[in-house]
Amino acid sequence: MQEFSSEFSAAIALILGGDSELWAIVLLSLKVSVFAVLVSALIGMPVGAALAVARFPGRRMLIVLMNALMGFPPVVVGLLVYLMLSRSGPLGVLELLYTPTAMIIAQVVLVTPIVTALTRQVVEMLAEEYSEQLRSLGVSRLASVPVLLWDARLALVTALLAGFGRAIAEVGAVIIVGGNINHVTRVMTTTIALETSKGNLSLALALGAILIGIAVAVNAMVSAVSLRAEQEGLSHA
Amino acid sequence: MRDVICDMSNCLTVENVQILSNGKVLLDVPSLILDGPGPTLLLGPNGAGKSLLLRCLHGLISPDRGRVVQDGNHLGAAQKARQAMVFQRPVLLRRSVAANLGFVLKRQGMGRRARKARIAELLAEGGLDGKARQSARSLSGGEAQRLAILRALALEPETLFLDEPTSALDPGATQMIERMVLRASARGVRIVMVTHDIGQARRLASDVVMMQGGHVVEHGPAKQVLDTPESEASRRYLAGGLVT
Amino acid sequence: MFRAILRAAVMALGLSANAALAETPFIVVQSTTSTQNSGLLDYILPWFEAESGIDVRVVAVGTGQAIRNAVNGDGDVLLVHAKSAEEKFVADGYGVERKDLMYNDFVLVGPKADPAGIRGGADILSALTAIAKAEAPFASRGDDSGTHKAELRHWSAAGADPTGASGSWYRETGSGMGATLNVASGMDAYTLTDRATWLSFGNRGNLEILVEGDPRLFNQYGVILVNPEKHPHVRAASGQRFIDWLTGPDGQEAIASFRLDGQQVFFPNAQ
């Protein structure tokens, strides 16, 4: 226990000391995950909303598949993205392996199903409520998509934050496609894995503490957003 | 049934409409011509088919047989665009009061400045001045329904359908809604409204359609139907008795 | 809130653009965790980078994975320690030429209590035999790495087959050296580790070196340029320059001057 507390105080000192290596790693993590979530939003929200309002054969299957993809193991995603981006893979010529872009791609693959599935759920509920009114106003199914997305905005922010939580805390996929290269693709989770394997627990702990801090901040934002939604009568309950 | 002479260019008619579900007839109206000078109110017990008829007239439900004709034309997109509907539970967009009105005005292609002026006008009409920026979802029940009516009126419809708009409201809120409906009617908007409230029918209706079991049992001037009902079903409904 | 997200997006985009602008020439080296975790590469690479202007990006994984990645063409230079696998890599046409670079040595570490009674021995084979006999906990890498391959060679030379005890006293972690040391430290198990990782490892707990100095424990590192005939995109000129530097007097001297706890752990022996 004594050892743990000494490691822990060393970790605190690293955070408070503004260690520039440490903060560069934190910043890269944030940039990669924020970018990945934005790309996922651009794909997942329209697709999720379309799944909610459109009616076509195979729609049920597609929804089941989307929900199943939410639990896809990150290591498998990492492996698949590696095989795509490897020089021997179909996208090898793009030279993306071992770059932050490769990590963004892996996280997009992980996060998009979450954003899509949650968007589908939220928009479908809202569409049920709005359906007659929108038809009465002469709004077609297709034209209703942006209306529904905008009116579900607060719930969608929650979905994005959930996706961000998965992206930033993920290690299995990004360590395979990023390579954990110092100053290039080393992010919080891969550093934690590396420093733990070096037995260098204080840096690992410091990053772990920051990761937990980010998780708490994200969850606080989720709860603040839903509180605001309730106060303004924007929630869907 | 009274004899009517309907100028086909100015009325709403139902021809041989049937709506079926699992072999059961939910609505069966061989002929109905809505041409009263003022609001027409649909009365009848629960399950009589009032809301169903209203949705059919508005094109939200397509009849299994027969058709609805407005002003001499089959009910199509152009005809529907000249109608508006207010629901029992107002469905407001999760936006500000003003944005709920702006949404329909913008869809009609109205420019930004014109919209602003029209929104102010409408809010004054519904007694919602000062609430423009408030979230529509935080309005009281009466305010929300007034906003729903204003949004329907913003479409400048020729026909306005209302499905029990005051069933959940207190007398004060109900009175404000009734005034809005009468003003719209006075401006020439054809009003077709479902209600359970016989007093409301007396206050608003020029014509009454009495329904039971998916059928129209009586249709005529309000005073006549309400004071000297011809059918047994109407008499029992108006007497507050159970209709079986 | 949406504006904030948008700003973040612009920020992220800006960063990617900057990164693209600031691109300096680089090579990717597929290497092992031992060279990275010990700090050797962090120590010697700045010299090469300053002299050549070439950025060296190290992907540190197990030897098995490093070789597979290099076979796929995902690297320019391979720096690992599993001589026969390296020779096969070259023979299969994936590498140009294998050069000896340096060696370090393995040590057998274990709990201070030493239930198998092997302390102070200099014979790895008899030590392993004693462990198997005592059925004392032993943590194996179990990940097809160079260290794992060396360990299996010694078991087989000792005439013991611990894989039958897998899951009881013989624990295969399937992880890197550091992770395996963490496991050994946590359950007071014996394990075979390279000296460099051991010296730089910070969470030793009850573990200490029990057997060392057996010539069979020497651990040869080789360096290979990935064959540009197999993978035309290989940065052959930069990669060759790196190999020439490593095996030349400057690189060899740099390796020799690296110290952990005041000890030299890598011994250059390029010809």
Description:
The complex is a heterotrimer of chains A (237), B (244) and C (271). Chain A has helices at residues 2-16, 20-53, 59-69, 74-85, 100-136, 141-151, 153-168, 172-178, 188-197, 201-231. Chain A is mainly α. In chain A, α1 (2-16) packs across α10, α3 (59-69) crosses α5 (100-136) and α4 (74-85) runs parallel beside α8 (172-178). By secondary structure, chain B is α/β, with parallel strands linked by helices. Chain B folds into 2 domains: 8-92 and 139-238, Rossmann fold, CATH 3.40.50.300; 93-138, no CATH class. In chain B, α3 packs across α4 (112-125), α3 (97-107) packs parallel to α5 and α4 packs across α5 (141-154). Chain B is globular and about 55 Å long. The model of chain B has no long low-confidence stretch (mean pLDDT 90). In chain C, strands 1, 2, 3, 4, 5, 6, 7, 8, 9 and 12 form a 10-stranded mixed sheet that branches. Chain C has a two-stranded antiparallel sheet with strand order 10-11. Chain C has 271 residues and is of the alpha/beta class. Chain C is 43% helix and 24% strand. Chain C is built from 11 helices and 12 strands. Chain C is globular and about 55 Å long. The model of chain C is unreliable at 13-21 (pLDDT under 50). The longest helix of chain C has 20 residues, at 2-21. At the A-C interface, α2, α7 and α9 of A face α1, β2 and α8 of C.
In short:
By secondary structure, chain B is α/β, with parallel strands linked by helices. Helix content of chain B is 36%, strand content 25%.
What topology does this entry show?
The complex is a heterotrimer of chains A (237), B (244) and C (271).
Chain A: H1 2-16, H2 20-53, H3 59-69, H4 74-85, H5 100-136, H6 141-151, H7 153-168, H8 172-178, H9 188-197, H10 201-231
Helix pairs in contact in A: 1-10, 2-5, 2-6, 2-7, 3-5, 4-5, 4-8, 5-6, 5-7, 5-8, 7-10, 9-10
Chain B: E1 12-21, E2 24-34, E3 40-43, H1 50-58, E4 65-70, E5 73-74, H2 77-80, E6 83-86, H3 97-107, H4 112-125, H5 141-154, E7 159-163, H6 171-186, E8 190-194, H7 198-204, E9 207-212, E10 215-221, H8 222-227, H9 232-238
Parallel strand pairs in B: 3-8, 3-9, 6-7, 7-8
Antiparallel strand pairs in B: 1-2, 1-4, 4-5, 9-10
Helix pairs in contact in B: 3-4, 3-5, 4-5, 5-6
Chain C: H1 2-21, E1 26-32, H2 33-37, H3 40-52, E2 55-61, H4 63-71, E3 77-80, H5 83-91, E4 95-111, H6 124-134, E5 138-140, H7 146-157, E6 170-172, H8 177-187, E7 190-194, H9 195-200, E8 207-211, E9 218-226, H10 236-247, H11 249-256, E10 259-260, E11 263-264, E12 267-268
Parallel strand pairs in C: 1-2, 1-3, 5-6, 5-7
Antiparallel strand pairs in C: 3-9, 4-7, 4-8, 4-9, 4-12, 10-11
Helix pairs in contact in C: 10-11
